[in-house]
């Protein structure tokens, strides 16, 4: 499967400042009843975004006019904790986000994001503070150089080199794993569990 | 690290499953011994196989069940399940069709072995020491109680494992949580793990595998060990681990999928070599005093926000920075509490006893010790949901269903139920529940619902009192 390659992204940010935003907030379990990954953006942050009657709450950052078309979400620390549901990055991508920026991002969510072309960007606490305090900031994220730019600032971020290569080239990991077949079969033979 | 230097339990399992070691350029290729599957996170993965013309590489290492979205409404013996929710019904049919097409063993609603994926893995004897186990579910960490390296994955990775029986992984670091001493009566594994999470924080285990060690861990039953490992993910950890010992072997002996005869003896000999070598180093160690533990209850909207049952909602001044403080304020407000308020006596409307954390026989027995001969408080809805059909049968064989029914609680069919509220078992907006499940996130048990996490003993005590209560009062 090919993914949309990720090289450079310029966008305004949307800010959700709370720490520890869990995947039940990103997409509540009642929207996990489907069998495809399509159309989940509508239910992104559903519990926070809509009131009891299903109308958008005007005060929610995602509903603000300047959030329209934004592709970068800036969130509090430990974003994406909780459940392993890949519906979380699917919903973010379907809504239009291509990158999530925080000072830390939970392990399973981060792995799921990378596999779908949603770039997790981990920045230092000082940069994080500035980004949290400045909604709708224009930023540029460059994956070739692993840098995030805004105003006059240019900060670098770390990313697993393998995941970076996959994102830059727009290829998924399954092809790589399938190419390991010989090694996998050899391991099974050695472990005495070959078929 | 060479084979001669002392290794932790984690390192032994990791090393033994390396198809390819990691390099700077590429993660390790890790072999997966057992892949557990359920209806919610697998349909997209099966679709990928179909799109690419792939098969399930090792169907005999893959076991599926239905648990998350199924009804748990009591049904008369001999009648079939009816799934009212059309979307859920379609998802369940998709699992049935996928398992049939790809040759995967499925414990569907009519199976005598159906149940929550992490409950049935252990009771079938599928969960074995020294193995690697994955599932598209974060509480896969439960299986670490047997000394298996078990962790949750997303749906794309479910596809990877279906197709290749392997995963790309970076080696996590190790965190030892050492629990010494003896837990007092009324204190259970749930209180222990809530204490651990409060201590290290909701992200305190990120990038790490936690190994629980010490005399208090050795003294735990397998069921209690599963409760501890289950919630490792609530501290952000990749997995939880407990070294296998005689308690583990006794639990596994004679299970349907456990080795038998000479193979059993060989397996036990292998398993005895798994515990970490003396002197094996952890990246970090945290120590907990078991004697000082008390029954615990959460007050906020993540599992690290807990206090001893006789404690009060903390002051937000203790939060470290502005973002944390905002999260704390929001959580306390959402829960309908204020800083400084005592938890004891806080009224509740619902009690949920069940889930992969506390839905096993021992948990139901604990709840029954409190509920036996007592009544659920007027106006409190109490659901008791066994973790599997086998748990349900065993509980009924010893009359626990009667204890619950006589007390005025609902005795339900097995499933995830109100832990995740996908099946209609849910809180109404503003309702408060004491729950033995693992997540108190906003809306987890229904939009606007307020969840107080606690042990089965504490949950049962709350059912009787109609308010948050100290179970020790009722055990005297
Ligand atoms: S009981 Fe709850 S936590 Fe456990 S598998 Fe089911 S939904 Fe997940």
Walkthrough of the structure:
The complex is a heterodimer of chains A (195) and B (476). With 195 residues, chain A is α/β, with parallel strands linked by helices. Chain A contains eight helices and seven strands, in the order βααβαβαβαβββααα. Chain A has helices spanning 23-26, 46-49, 87-95, 107-114, 125-133, 161-169, 174-178, 181-191; strands at residues 8-16, 72-75, 99-102, 119-122, 138-142, 147-150, 153-156. Chain A has a seven-stranded mixed β-sheet with strand order 4-3-2-1-5-6-7. In chain A, a hairpin with a 4-residue loop joins strand 5 (138-142) and strand 6 (147-150). The mean pLDDT of chain A is 95. Chain B is α/β, with parallel strands linked by helices and 476 residues long. Helix content of chain B is 33%, strand content 16%. In chain B, strands 5-4-3-6-7 form a five-stranded parallel β-sheet. A five-stranded parallel β-sheet of chain B has the order 17-16-15-18-19. Chain B has a four-stranded parallel β-sheet with strand order 11-10-9-12. In chain B, helix 13 (361-371) packs across helix 15. Chain B starts with 8 loop residues before the first helix and ends with a helix. The model of chain B has no long low-confidence stretch (mean pLDDT 96). Chains A and B meet through helix 4, helix 6, helix 7 and helix 8 of A and helix 2, helix 3, helix 5, strand 8 and helix 11 of B.
